[in-house]
Amino acid sequence: MELPRLLLVRQNFPARRIRDIPASVSTELARSGMAARLKPGSEVAIGVGSRGIHNLELIVGSVVRYWKDQGMRPLLFPAMGSHGGATAEGQQSVLAHYGITEASMACPIVSQLEVVSLGKTADGIEAFMDRAAYQAGAVLLVNRVKWHTDFSGAIESGLFKMMAIGLGKLAGAQRYHSYGHRLGLEYVIRTVGRQTLGSGKILGGVAILEDAYHNTAKIDVVPAEAMERREEENLALVKSWMATLPMDLDLLVVDEMGKNISGLGMDTKIINRTHRGEYNLFADTPRIERIFTRALSDLSYGNALGVGGADVVTDRLVEAIDTHNTWINALTASNPSGAHTPIHYPTDRECLEHLLPTAGREDPSQVTIGWIRNTLELARLGLSENLRRQIEGNPLLAIEDAIPIEFDRAHNLVSPFLKVETTAGA
Predict the structure, then answer these.
(1) How far apart are CA 221 and CA 24, in angstroms?
(2) If 308 and its partner were Cys, which of 53, 146, 340, 382 is the partner (CB 3.0–4.6 Å)?
(3) Residue 418's pLDDT is what?
């Protein structure tokens, strides 16, 4: 199997990193005027999700300290639908792996699955809220605003989705996705979100926007009455910052996938596969003909939802799958195809030997290859040397090195990427 050399390439995106995150969180919370809406000593339930958000521990800790400084009593709770195996212990463990514990946050964490009904929407969709959150004086949500992996709309993933789906725990998430299959997920997110706002329990949210380097670029504290409008504005802004692959590829090698990286393990709007596994339906995204995914991130806790987006994976990825966590997430999201296991082989070499002949090139050395650590980290990537002309013609790309594609003694690829990448602007 003859493979072309690999060019290590940096994509030069604008860096928008916030220099002092705690100060930004405190300033924006103070500017929102939320504290004046609460009685001194009120309990504020702060909802936190399961995504691998950069600086999440720092941001959540800053939110907790702000409310303590205002004389309030903050508590944290998981707002993550069915993630973490849909168990109280599993969801608390997800937060702990992000550094969010009672000790590190110096406040209680209440993880449980009981919900309170908030009534039904005009379509008959019953809305639910975590009981512990409902019993607090007010609810504040902390989440990243980002494009969604299952659909496109003016509102996708963010505060409104957390309010509609994350707050509802397993009971709500199952119901909402079922209705979303028929009515459209954006419609369900909006209508259930409005029903939840009507409870009067939502104080607002802390919206986190990240730049193309996955740096925290904006903290926007949004009061309840402005959440829907500001969610649209923030999503449009963050989409304009979005990192993408720079060109069409015959083969994309992905070192790792996982729930901490994307809701479907690999961002569908990067790899150009829909949540049902359909190929290249996003017209404004480069075409990717074949995908080889090497491993499941440890921080995914065995949840491999989205693995069906790959064409070939390794045996070690399959062995890392927790079928309970994966299947319950797939069924809750009404997306059983996302849990389909692809063709798999023991070694990387075997995976490539079987996959390359399907890429449409008679000469394997002419296959155009891209290589990334995961779909969050696109600042540095590998591109095969037969793409040099396209790379040199793109002013956003800079070649840093040229290396052979190598295998170790176990016949697995030697990745050119560090375990934790240093991003621009850091």
Answers:
(1) 10
(2) 340
(3) 64
Average pLDDT, the chain: 91
Q: Is the pLDDT of residue 180 over 80?
A: no
Backbone Cα Rg of the chain: 22
CA distance 342 to 257: 14
Pull the structure tokens for residue 397. Answer: 């790309």
Phi-psi region of 415 (alpha: psi -120 to 50; beta: other; left: phi over 0): beta
> What's the whole-model pTM score?
0.79
**Tokens 């110096």 correspond to what residue?**
106
Look at the domain 21-240 and name its fold.
Answer: Rossmann fold (3.40.50)
The ranges assigned to domains in the chain are: 6-14+242-403, 21-240
User: Which tens digit of pLDDT belongs to each residue from 40-57?
Assistant: 999 999 999 977 789 999
How many CA atoms are closer than 13 Å to the CA of 8, on its beta-carbon side?
12
H/E/C letters for each residue in 261-284?
Answer: CCCCCCCHHHHCECCCCCECCCCC
pLDDT at 422: 37
CA distance 239 to 154: 11
* 396-399, Cβ contacts within 8 angstroms, sequence gap of 24 or more: 396/11, 396/12, 396/13, 396/246, 397/9, 397/10, 397/11, 397/12, 397/246, 398/9, 398/10, 398/12, 399/7, 399/8, 399/9
- Please give the average per-residue pLDDT across 350-365, as a whole number: 89
Maximum alpha-carbon separation in the chain: 72
Contact (Cβ atoms closer than 8 angstroms) between residue 251 and residue 370: yes
Alpha helices by DSSP H, listed for 280-346, are 315-319, 323-332
